[in-house]
Design goal:
Layout (H helix, E strand, L loop, with lengths): L6 E4 L3 H12 L4 E4 L13 E4 L1 H10 L2 H10 L1 E3 L4 E5 L5 E5 L11 E5 H8 L7 E2 L4 E7 L2 E6 L10 E4 L6 H6 L6 E14 L9 E7 L7 E7 L10 E8 L16 H10 L9 H4 L7 E8 L13 E3 L14 H19 L6 H28 L12
Parallel strand pairs: 1-2, 1-11, 2-8, 5-13, 11-17
Antiparallel strand pairs: 3-7, 4-7, 5-6, 9-10, 12-15, 12-16, 13-14, 14-15
Helix pairs in contact: 1-4, 1-8, 2-8, 3-4, 8-9
InterPro entries: FAD-bd, FAD/NAD-bd_sf
Keywords: FAD, Flavoprotein, Monooxygenase, Oxidoreductase, Signal
Cofactor: FAD
Length: 391
């Protein structure tokens, strides 16, 4: 890499790492600052479904050998397609293969978040500085510096990209507080069980819904890929969600992992049909984890005066509910777009962040509106921009 001042990236999430791959291919220097001590410091979360747009964005960035590795890591689910069940009766309520679910070759393409992160980080781990919590930035005469939680500053960069998720301090600062993330009050649980627990489902994408609870609906989404059900050593994941108030982590502490989360999942599903009970009876209790469902301003990504040397990507710019599975796909589109603009400019140039934000704001706002609208129907959530709590 050249001696040019690097692009500074806050956060080592999916969007940040994919942007770094783009910069590496373009021979543009960069540095990543991550608050965690390593990739295994926190649970990696649930499995992600990749859309056409998401896959196209990723393929446009990764060099052919790494793209081939990524594609091989992805699971491709066909089988019975998309099937919905009544959780209590076990009866099938819907059996379709929505076009929006299929990505390539008529298959649903997905990958575990942790696997995706590892592939995206390949080849530049030495450019990641761990245990560096970015809390703001300061502009210099000819660049920008990241400010860390301990009060120290980073090296001077030509540009700073905030990609540190829904709690991004960069997003708050650069937008003048216009970027807002709301707590929808809905909670979920991630769980894992051995492949033997999924025998009653077969291959496909499944939604299981229970509307009989006194406090509201509970639903579970999972997918079983080709070969999974025949591998006794495979651990498959499921994601449970609910209407607000149904899933209640102790003290509303959604960071809890392990048996407490598993016990709540088992309690909520105690009356489910025997076909689905093995998902909970055989679950790996120590892998269970609560999660909080958040969303940015439902009307879309707000406008703010452009700061030429600072911008934001991924959840820092547009947090979405899991409804529709479009959050990660929108985030990688950010990475591909900003990376392409920087490549075409040969690195930082005035106007790059403005051009990026104009295009990002268009497609990301539509994605946020779509995700929120789906979540209103699926989760029963409602965001009031005047009264709903922010994270």
């Amino acid at each position: 890499m050249s001696a040019t001042k690097p692009i500074l990236i806050s956060g080592a999430g999916l969007a940040s790492l994919l942007l770094a791959q783009s910069l590496r291919s373009s021979k543009i220097p960069f540095k990543i600052f991550e608050r965690d001590a390593s990739f295994v410091f926190r649970a990696q979360g649930y499995r992600l479904r990749l859309s056409d747009e998401g896959l196209d964005a990723i393929e446009s960035v990764l060099e052919p050998p790494l793209w081939a590795k990524f594609w091989d890591t992805c699971g491709k689910t066909g089988g019975s397609g998309f099937v919905a069940f009544d959780a209590v009766t076990g009866e099938e309520t819907e059996h379709v293969v929505p076009e929006r679910l299929s990505s390539r070759d008529g298959k649903v393409v997905g990958i575990a978040r942790g696997d995706m992160r590892r592939v995206f980080a390949e080849g530049f781990e030495e450019h990641i500085e761990w245990s560096k919590h970015v809390t703001g930035y300061e502009l210099t005469e000819d660049g920008v510096k990241a400010i860390f939680a301990d009060g120290t500053r980073s090296v001077e960069g030509s540009m700073l990209v905030g990609g540190e998720g829904i709690y991004s301090k960069i997003a708050k600062q650069v937008s003048g507080g216009k970027i807002k993330v709301y707590d929808t009050a809905a909670r979920g649980i991630h769980g894992q069980a051995p492949s033997t627990a999924f025998k009653g489902l077969g291959e496909g994408v499944f939604r299981i819904r229970d509307d009989t609870g006194p406090d509201g609906a509970v639903f579970l989404i999972t997918n079983v890929r080709s070969g999974d059900k025949d591998d006794p050593n495979a651990q498959l994941g499921w994601t449970m969600g609910s209407e607000p108030g149904v899933i209640r982590p102790p003290n509303d502490d959604f960071s809890i992992v392990g048996k407490q989360a598993a016990d709540v999942a088992k309690s909520l599903t105690k009356n489910w049909h025997p076909r689905f009970k093995p998902l909970f009876d055989e679950m790996n209790e120590w892998e269970a984890a609560f999660w909080k469902i958040t969303c940015s301003t439902p009307s879309g990504v707000p406008e703010w005066p452009n700061e030429p040397r600072v911008t934001i990507i991924g959840d820092a710019a547009h947090s979405m509910t899991p409804a529709g599975g479009i959050g990660a796909n929108t985030a990688v589109r950010d990475s591909a777009l900003l990376g392409r603009l920087l490549r075409e400019a040969g690195g930082y140039k005035p106007g790059v962040t403005a051009a990026y934000e104009k295009e990002m704001r268009s497609y990301a706002s539509e994605a946020v509106r779509q995700s929120y609208g789906t979540a209103v129907q699926a989760f029963g959530i409602k965001i009031d921009e005047e009264t709903s709590p922010q994270v």
